[in-house]
Amino acid sequence: MSRYPFRDVEHRWQQAWKKAGCFKANHDPDRPKYYVLEMFPYPSGRIHMGHVRNYTLGDVVARFRRAQGYNVLHPMGWDAFGMPAENAAIENQCHPKEWTESNIAHMRDQLKAMGLSYDWDRELATCEPDYYKHEQKIFLDFLAHGLAYRKESTVNWDPVDKTVLANEQVVDGKGWRSGAPVERRKLSQWFLRITDFAEDLLSSLEKLNRWPERVRLMQENWIGRSQGAVIQFALQGHSDCLAVYTTRPDTVFGASFCAIAPDHPLASILAVNNPELASFIQECNRLGVSEEVIEQAEKKGVDTGLKALHPFIEGQTLPLYVANFILMDYGTGAIFGCPAHDQRDLDFARRYHLPVQPVVSPDGHPITIGESAFTGEGVAINSDFLNGLPSSQAKKAATDALVAKGLGTAETVYRLRDWGISRQRYWGCPIPVIHCPDCGIVPVPEDDLPVTLPEGDTGNFLETHPNWKHVSCPRCQGPAHRETDTFDTFFESSWYFNRFAGPCTEAPFNPQELAYWMPVDQYIGGIEHAVLHLLYARFFQRALRRCGYAISEQIIEPFSGLLTQGMVRHRTFRDTTGQWLYPENIHQQGHDWVTKDGQPVEAGRIEKMSKSKRNVVDPATILDSHGADTARLFMLSDSPPERDLEWSEAGIDGIWRYLNRLWRLVDQSANGLAKTKNKKPPLASPSVENLDQAALELLQATHKTIAAVKTDLESFRFNKAVARIRELTNRLEETDLDHFKITNGGAAVYRFSIETTLCLLAPMIPHFAEEGWKRLGYQTLLAQTAWPDADPNMIMDHQVTLAIQINGKLKTTLTVARDLTRPEIEKCALALEPIRQATDGKTIKRIIVVPERVVNLVI
RNA sequence: GCGGACGUGGUGGAAUGGGUAGACACGAGGGACUUAAAAUCCCUUGCCUGAUCAAGGCGUGCGGGUUCGACUCCCGCCGUCCGCACCA
User: Fold this and answer.
1) Which of the two ends of chain A, N or C, has the fewest CB atoms closer than 10 A to its terminal CB?
2) Please, what is the angle between helix A766-775 and helix A649-673, to 10°?
3) Comparing C-alpha atoms, which of A8, A193, A210, A2 is closest to residue A770?
4) What global pTM score does this model have?
5) Nucleotide B20: nearest residue by CA–C1'?
């Protein structure tokens, strides 16, 4: 029995596509463009299943759109800076560059073996000076436009990776890569002013209607806009006012204290003469920011002795505390406490015996506050001129009154903070500035770019390199030193998609190419970048535009469509001693799992593939044993792309069996049809004249499949597309080719159907489809063949099957002509035997006829 | 705590402008071929009653509701997952 010889086939077609230049993207203003991009990989050394899934999804889109006639750009590159290279370099006594480049070479071969339709001429690696010199220029432009700045601040310090992390990179108080609890440190760091664009980044989200709702929501929450007021509280015996931010100015009459953050400037001033306060502040700084610490920490504070004056109540003073639950970097780092309507304030007030005065009531009647605050909206009470106003109006009235008295302003505040981009690493893009003892911070002159990384043995930090940092100041020529921090690697990935549009030596990107290719029509990658990469990239477009780069309004959003794929998971296994086992030597025996040598295995949960639990399968194994197309089709078959997918050996076997069945079908068809003449060009639908019923039905089924697969692929429902094609395959297998050959037009219909099957599968299993295409006798490449059109007349059924229900319960079905009139349908339905029995002796109260769907008899 | 998503056979999943639930697969069971295995092919497969007939009943997390008709819409629970989290 012949088997699909993937080893021979796959390599041969990869060469043929390359020779024919099938996937080369050329600027052509006369054709509609389609830019499909998958998030480029970090070159860790080998591709993993997540890559296989990601790039298969992208490749199906690219090949499908190409067949539909779009001018497709589908590039690939390498996000090549990062820490693993530094560690590997130390381990292997080599330069990170060597390690990275050899990884790229290996992974490039692996991707090519998958038959992915990339335009490899556009490949780039972010660690090449040719790439990073442009981002050094971009940084200098940001600096010149005030979008990059340096400031001393408390930062998130990852003690394992020994570097600073952005807020986005701290997950549950731990570093996103190392998982180590983050510490707080004061350091002088470079920041990008992403907060300048907070409003635009937020409001533009609603235009991204081809993004998953959930990603937009995550970004919305991350930006975290809130509207409120800043109130200036006068301080007794002090010339300065205390600025306090609140979203509830309507509760100002319930204020019973004020509190500031331990790192508020006023706190350190007051601490000078207050030892108790000084030690409290010290204690606060010692505490980490991890989740546990925050949850367990009690609301504590120290009374500074200072009194704030209530803005509206003459003579009322509020004690000023320094409190551990006030955050310096949100709002103004100071609050007024309204215990009746804020749980934290209430906890604090109970502890320090402060008054609790309700000023909002759900219904306007007096309320009392016990252990929980009333945080909802309602009607203002005990609030002088606000009394009786609903909360929303009270907010406005209070704010207006504050403005009138010169004691406050309406303010919008964002949770988003500026992006800290300094990293204390070696294998990254050097930040192009020079520190001069006399001139201060001096940008590296553009002519001196790129600032390249040193060669040779380096250790892990530019800081400790023997001589790299010593330079003369570009301004005064005196001795100076280079900035030894490098960019956060998210810097590189914030603009690479622009460069793919048209490589360009003089500038980061080519304006004409950018205008043609951008935005990315479909971006595909993991959900883990929902607020990291995807937010930074949106910010970059805006910042680049402000610096005068050719980013038009049309491409200010870099990714117009986004698909976030789910993870690849696998069952976990342990032996009897609890050791994790690799799945490669384990198989199922009935309901049990055993190793190859018969040892019992405990099967655990199905989890995300991870090295620590050993539930990983190396794609290389599958490519070798079953071929690229088997792996590709498996990735598409069962689960919708945005959901998690379980990798299973049984599933792979199932796909492999299907491919071989299809292989035999194509083979038999090719042989069987060899003697019949095909007068039509490929994929031209045969004439319906004089066809027998079987041929007509096959033709109709084929057209229906064409239509359904188009819809499914356009909406990324690949699993459904596969199911539809398998239905057609099943039908073809049941079809008697010998009979079709001798009937009028039968051979042409059969040929059309089998050709169509291959064509529809080509985006998913391109090598297989191409080989089948050749066996059917074509000299042309399927990769260059246009997508077939479904004939609308062929999709319309002349007969329809109606559900016949009694009181909404299905009793039987009825097949009638589509255009049968209602009275005739009713007559037919009532004449049906099961219906006559069920309605015998009963009154039919009502008959509901829904054309082409259902007849419901109410009795 | 706040925000969001989701709950369908043994499993992955189909079907939502309300209209034949379980497409397509995986797994399982039975059979054919074979000395045997692999491969391949055929049959069965939501649950229950019934005899593997005829036929009937029950079924989309649970409880209500709207409707001729609800996996789909509304209300209230329960559960799972994800994001954010002392954000004033």
Assistant:
1) N
2) 20
3) A8
4) 0.93
5) A803
